[in-house]
Amino acid sequence: MTNLWEDLETGPDAPDEIYAVVECLKGERNKYEYDKDVPGVVLDRVLHSNVHYPSDYGFLPRSYYDDGDPFDVLVLVEDQTFPGCIIEARPVALMKMDDDGEQDDKVIAVPTEDPRYDHIEDLQDLPDQLIDEIDEFFQTYKNLEAGKEVETLGWEDKAAAKDAIEHSMELYDENFDSPRN
């Protein structure tokens, strides 16, 4: 059985084009996580706050970030997909975040196969309202979980997102002894 974290490349042309493995769905409160030991998507918890994911959310394959998890990605979609769906996407921004004292940044990406997002190339192309909604979600989604503290730390452009993706790919290789060909 294919392990979507270990067996799938980070993207067809990472960091310019990436694969996002969807865990959580736009409009839902269920927090799914990919469990590489199953392998499959499992229900981790239901969000304690009355908020829902602003878009499909998941991780980049063969990535590892400073928080000790695969690198997070939020893919802007009109309609939710499904847990385990692989979306080919372009990074357009990076949201900086601290989650319980650990750097837990998020790549913001758009699907390469949806013409509604062809005009979105970089942070300045995202509507201010959408940026505010994403920021508000991540600022508040753990508010009712005991002992959890999250702080959003601002936004950076596509170049920063691509640098962070490269960093996550390097960390994966360093930690899992898997040099890329």
Automatic annotation (TrEMBL):
<dbReference type="InterPro" id="IPR008162">
    <property type="entry name" value="Pyrophosphatase"/>
</dbReference>
<comment type="similarity">
    <text>Belongs to the PPase family.</text>
</comment>
<dbReference type="GO" id="GO:0004427">
    <property type="term" value="F:inorganic diphosphate phosphatase activity"/>
</dbReference>
<keyword id="KW-0460">Magnesium</keyword>
<feature type="binding site">
    <location>
        <position position="72"/>
    </location>
    <ligand>
        <name>Mg(2+) 2</name>
    </ligand>
</feature>
<keyword id="KW-0378">Hydrolase</keyword>
<keyword id="KW-0963">Cytoplasm</keyword>
<feature type="binding site">
    <location>
        <position position="31"/>
    </location>
    <ligand>
        <name>substrate</name>
    </ligand>
</feature>
<feature type="binding site">
    <location>
        <position position="57"/>
    </location>
    <ligand>
        <name>substrate</name>
    </ligand>
</feature>
<dbReference type="GO" id="GO:0006796">
    <property type="term" value="P:phosphate-containing compound metabolic process"/>
</dbReference>
<dbReference type="InterPro" id="IPR036649">
    <property type="entry name" value="Pyrophosphatase_sf"/>
</dbReference>
<dbReference type="GO" id="GO:0005737">
    <property type="term" value="C:cytoplasm"/>
</dbReference>
<dbReference type="Pfam" id="PF00719">
    <property type="entry name" value="Pyrophosphatase"/>
</dbReference>
<feature type="binding site">
    <location>
        <position position="104"/>
    </location>
    <ligand>
        <name>Mg(2+) 1</name>
    </ligand>
</feature>
<feature type="binding site">
    <location>
        <position position="72"/>
    </location>
    <ligand>
        <name>Mg(2+) 1</name>
    </ligand>
</feature>
<protein>
    <recommendedName>
        <fullName>Inorganic pyrophosphatase</fullName>
        <ecNumber>3.6.1.1</ecNumber>
    </recommendedName>
</protein>
<keyword id="KW-0479">Metal-binding</keyword>
<feature type="binding site">
    <location>
        <position position="45"/>
    </location>
    <ligand>
        <name>substrate</name>
    </ligand>
</feature>
<comment type="subunit">
    <text>Homohexamer.</text>
</comment>
<feature type="binding site">
    <location>
        <position position="67"/>
    </location>
    <ligand>
        <name>Mg(2+) 1</name>
    </ligand>
</feature>
<comment type="function">
    <text>Catalyzes the hydrolysis of inorganic pyrophosphate (PPi) forming two phosphate ions.</text>
</comment>
<dbReference type="GO" id="GO:0000287">
    <property type="term" value="F:magnesium ion binding"/>
</dbReference>
<feature type="binding site">
    <location>
        <position position="141"/>
    </location>
    <ligand>
        <name>substrate</name>
    </ligand>
</feature>
